[in-house]
């Protein structure tokens, strides 16, 4: 077991939120895509945002990750130096640096998150090279390490992802994001478009990586099974508002809002 | 009808001023690609329209112009451009590197060391070093602005992963003045070290892409590499067959259809100068020996 001092430090760090959203809203003209969303995310916590298409999930994810400017409200993030800063006050260089070091973003379509024409090794190594790694051997070793961790055969390291299957591409995208040891990963429907057995394997992998690396994750999904398997907490969205939030088991087993009840009851029993 | 009267060096004065402003800006920010309003020139894109515009903008009546194409003074492109300026500007032209004040080049830097009173003008087809990795211009500009050059190493990584060494042999990316990553135009990487700390001003013109960039005299130019795969200039391992030079960049010339080949200096002026000074190579005196020599090389 870890000694007492380290444990205390750990507890202290986990005590403060990593990301705070305060009454976030975004409107496109008269259409409000996202209204008054507030929450705090703690280190190591997995938060699922569920809801049907058009409920504002993806907009919210883009607001949280600083890719979209909010019409109202703030997002603050506790940087690696321990200082919590409003994302809107970060310069573009800082934001992009944050995005490729302390954050990850897993797209639904791996083609958006990967460079399809360059090898898997270079895909994983790109972030390292972007933060100044300048030793081919070390970059390659780290890349092969990560490929092994996401269960991709080392023999495929020099193949371009366009020769990969859908499930492998998604795992490669995850490796590419995790190589800089981010503390927060955004995921937008990471299992969308994969068949059920591949989904199960991917979820399994994600779950073990999240636990192992003590990752905080914000995952957007319309698949309640994914939310149940991965997340600690669930936020249910409808019409741009958060209508229900709570521990995953609590929300999914005992939904209070009629819409959540509908959502939960629409899943076929296993 | 009267023959059309051209302004000195073909371009009108306002256009030259516009190009000179771009050049000044490029010199002020070494390696930065300055957009300019590239003009239609009386030659097709890809034949040096960018270089010609830069040359036209900096040329004065007292300048002596040299034009080289792949190191050679006597290929079509070089002769055409030299004649173009002889006709439209009436400037003196030369093939001797040391006599020239302005040297327009396509794909080579002369072997003879350049001096402070010379300007080297490069013809550039694609100025953006990140282009083949990142197709979006908006994104590459942002990457330059924020000095995000990890992607450039991705290209070198790919080379090593595929070929075991950095196989990029020309247009080898450089970092200028410890800030901007720049494409040195498709010069062989053999020429990269010559750009570093060069006494001559180096100007780059891309006509189709409408960009001008520059390396001021005595500027630090570093070829990108990995610690465990350092930059190495490449040269065929042979002396020049005509002048015996051991340290010049060589062209490979196929001499028959049985695998015969000879290696000669790509810089014709340098090679001729050495031959005039009495140097000779294996094939210079007796061309009939070519076959035997070719066989042993092949």
Automatic annotation (TrEMBL), chain B:
First-level EC class: lyase
The EC number(s) this enzyme carries: 4.7.1.1
Protein keywords: 4Fe-4S, Iron, Iron-sulfur, Lyase, Metal-binding, S-adenosyl-L-methionine
Catalysed reactions listed for this entry: alpha-D-ribose 1-methylphosphonate 5-phosphate + AH2 + S-adenosyl-L-methionine = alpha-D-ribose 1,2-cyclic phosphate 5-phosphate + methane + 5'-deoxyadenosine + L-methionine + A + H(+)
GO molecular function, one term: alpha-D-ribose 1-methylphosphonate 5-phosphate C-P-lyase activity
One GO process term, biological-process aspect: organic phosphonate catabolic process
This protein's record includes keyword Iron-sulfur: yes
Pfam families: PhnJ
Entry-linked InterPro entries: PhnJ
Function comment: Catalyzes the breakage of the C-P bond in alpha-D-ribose 1-methylphosphonate 5-phosphate (PRPn) forming alpha-D-ribose.
Sequence similarity: Belongs to the PhnJ family.
Designated name of the protein: Alpha-D-ribose 1-methylphosphonate 5-phosphate C-P lyase
Organism per entry: Bradyrhizobium hipponense
């Amino acid at each position: 077991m870890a000694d007492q001092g380290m444990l205390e430090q750990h507890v202290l760090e986990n005590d403060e939120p990593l990301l705070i959203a305060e009454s976030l809203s975004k409107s496109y003209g008269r259409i409000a895509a996202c209204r008054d969303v507030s929450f705090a995310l703690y280190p190591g916590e997995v938060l699922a945002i569920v809801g049907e298409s058009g409920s504002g999930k993806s907009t919210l994810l883009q607001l949280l990750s600083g890719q979209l400017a909010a019409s109202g409200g703030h997002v603050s993030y506790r940087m690696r130096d321990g200082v919590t800063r409003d994302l809107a006050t970060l310069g573009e260089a800082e934001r992009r640096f944050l995005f490729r070091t302390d954050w990850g973003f897993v797209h639904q379509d791996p083609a958006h998150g990967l460079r399809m024409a360059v090898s898997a090794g270079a895909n994983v190594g790109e972030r390292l090279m972007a933060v100044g790694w300048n030793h081919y051997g070390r970059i390659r070793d780290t890349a092969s390490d990560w490929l092994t961790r996401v269960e991709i055969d080392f023999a495929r390291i020099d193949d371009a992802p366009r020769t990969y299957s859908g499930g492998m591409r998604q795992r490669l995208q995850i490796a590419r994001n995790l190589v800089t040891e981010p503390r927060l990963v955004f995921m937008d429907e990471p299992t969308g478009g994969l068949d059920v057995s591949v989904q199960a394997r991917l979820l399994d992998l994600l779950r073990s990586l999240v636990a192992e690396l003590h990752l905080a994750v914000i995952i957007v999904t319309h698949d309640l099974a994914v939310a149940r398997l991965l997340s600690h907490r669930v936020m249910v969205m409808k019409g741009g508002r958060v209508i229900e939030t709570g521990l995953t088991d609590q929300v999914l087993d005992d939904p209070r809002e009629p819409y959540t009840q509908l959502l939960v009851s629409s899943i076929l029993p296993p | 009808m009267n023959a059309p009267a051209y302004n000195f060096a073909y371009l009108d004065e306002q256009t030259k001023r516009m190009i000179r402003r771009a050049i000044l800006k490029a010199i002020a920010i070494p390696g930065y690609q300055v957009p300019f309003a590239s003009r239609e020139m009386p030659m097709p894109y890809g034949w040096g329209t960018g270089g010609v515009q830069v040359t036209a903008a900096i040329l004065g009546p007292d300048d002596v112009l040299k034009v080289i194409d792949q190191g050679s003074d006597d290929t079509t492109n070089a002769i055409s451009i030299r004649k173009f300026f002889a006709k439209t500007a009436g400037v003196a032209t030369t093939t001797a590197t040391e006599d020239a004040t302005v040297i327009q080049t396509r794909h080579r830097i002369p072997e003879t060391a350049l001096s402070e009173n010379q300007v080297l003008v490069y013809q550039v087809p694609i100025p953006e070093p990140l282009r083949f990795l990142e197709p979006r211009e908006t994104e590459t500009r942002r990457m330059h602005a924020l000095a995000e050059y990890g992607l450039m190493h991705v290209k070198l990584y790919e080379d090593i992963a595929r070929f075991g060494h950095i196989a990029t042999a020309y247009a080898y990316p450089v970092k200028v003045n410890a800030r901007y990553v720049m494409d040195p135009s498709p010069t062989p990487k053999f020429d990269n070290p010559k750009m570093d700390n060069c006494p001559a001003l180096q100007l780059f013109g891309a006509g189709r892409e409408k960009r001008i960039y520059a390396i001021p005299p005595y500027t630090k130019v570093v070829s990108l590499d990995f610690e465990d795969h350092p930059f190495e200039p490449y040269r065929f391992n042979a002396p020049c067959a005509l002048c015996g030079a051991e340290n010049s960049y060589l062209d490979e010339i196929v001499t028959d259809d049985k695998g015969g080949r000879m290696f000669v200096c790509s810089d014709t002026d340098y090679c001729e100068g050495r031959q005039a000074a009495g140097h000779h190579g294996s094939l210079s005196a007796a061309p009939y020996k070519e076959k035997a020599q070719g066989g042993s090389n092949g």
